[in-house]
Amino acid sequence: MKARDILHCDLDAFFASVEQRDHPEYRGKPVIVGGSPEARGVVATCSYETRRFGVHSAMPVRRAMKLCPEAVLLPVDFRRYREVSGRVRRVWERFTPEIEVVSIDEAYLAVEKGTGMVTAAEIRAVVSRELNLPLSIGVSTNKLLAKIACGLAKPNGLKALWPADVPEVLWPLPADVLPGVGPKSAERLAGVGVVTVGDLVAAPVELLRGVLGNASVAFQRYAQGLDTREFTLVRRARSVSEETTFPQDVADRDHILAVLMTQAEEVGHRLRAGGAKARTVTLKLRFASFRTITRSVTLFEATDSGVALYRAACELFDQHSGRPPWRLVGIKASGLTAWEQLSLLPPSGADEKLRRVENALDGLRARYGRQVVFRARRLMHRD
Ligand code: TTP
Ligand code: MG
Predict the structure, then answer these.
(1) Which of 70, 323, 330, 370 meets the CB 3.0–4.6 Å disulfide criterion with 284?
(2) pLDDT in tens, 121-137
């Protein structure tokens, strides 16, 4: 398994945030989403304004309304939240094909080592800008530390928790920050003098066995920040794509090619970030008449190179460009293969050189964000 940075992404007060976004009059107010008190409903979630009053998920709504009488109580609109959840996932898929979806508002993403924080900041910016929702992200080298970091980042924050920070940051925290240590276990641990994560590391395993049973060894490993759980791709993106609808129809071939180059580089970057290569390149074109065509080509060898994707798209464009002007252009890379299945053919000298250039670009981008890298062609046509 290639070394990766792991992101744990979790939307803040998800159902309540969607309601606050769609109904500006609820913003900044305590909001509870849940069943009706008459039907003995429970709280699905509540906005952070409500949490100050001690209200939390799974609490009876009747009790919650006593704790926070001014709260706005809203019914659960699952269809809406599912739809929003799908949009959020599509944002995640723009950044990496390696996604482990955990729940309606939560996922682990694996990205190239060293790029975790920059990618996380970009994801948060996109979710804020395009979906107007607060998202917290924790970054580390394994799922456990990423999830804990996300909890520390909440609400609406970004935090890294690297293995080297474990003694200083993780050990002073209460033991129940570890996933799986619920309030009941925490109470019983406190009974034997184990209050913090650090106490858990230091405690003799026989002492813990009385409280946590057979899981004691696993929890002690967690307490040291160790986590060897596999990254399970519940849902691996089947394609990576980019498309652009122009504010005004474009009749200039060079302009189209410049946009395709930008898109191809973006798609190539995302493939490399996710450790995947694509076998098929699809060009999408929409004409002024709204007629839309897609044309594909299967490559001789799978690629993650922006230039190779661009070349294929360019050829497709020249074969199928039809009559200008164009309204939309897009590129899709599909037929994704993972690292293990890559070609065994040795790369040719030219490929090797290109690979070095693209690695350098990825490095720049990892350090300075996606805006830093422009090729001359893109600069010519930048809006
Ligand atoms: P969570 O991510 O656990 O909670 P949250 O997003 O509301 O708040 P935060 O992550 O900031 O702590 O759950 C996601 C959604 O799932 C939540 O908005 C509502 C729903 N949910 C329930 O319906 N019942 C529950 O008991 C929990 C925990 C969540
Ligand atoms: Mg959440």
Answers:
(1) 330
(2) 999 999 999 999 999 99
152 lines ligand 1 (CB under 6 A): no
Q: How far is the CA of 26 from the centre of ligand 1 (A)?
A: 18
> What is the whole-number distance in angstroms between the Cα of residue 11 and the centre of ligand 2?
4
331: which strand partners? Answer: 242, 283
Q: Is 219 exposed, middle or buried (0-12, 13-18, 19+ CB in 10 A)?
A: buried
Residue written as token pair 């890559």: 342
Nearest by Cα to 61 from 87, 35, 80, 86? 35
Considering only CA atoms, which residue is closest to atom 22 of ligand 1? 44
Q: What pTM does this model have? A: 0.66
What are the residue ranges in the chain where pLDDT is below 50? Answer: 235, 339-347, 376-377, 379-383
- Cα gap 257→127, rounded to integer Å: 28
**Residue positions annotated with a catalytic role:** 106
Does the C-beta of 19 come closer than 6 Å to ligand 1?
no
CA-CA distance, 284 to 261, in Å (whole number)? 14
Q: Does the beta carbon of 13 sit less than 6 angstroms from any atom of ligand 1? A: yes
Q: How far apart are CA 195 and CA 172, in angstroms?
A: 9
Cα separation, 273 vs 95, in Å, equals: 8
> What pLDDT score does 144 carry?
96
Q: What pLDDT is attached to residue 371?
A: 57
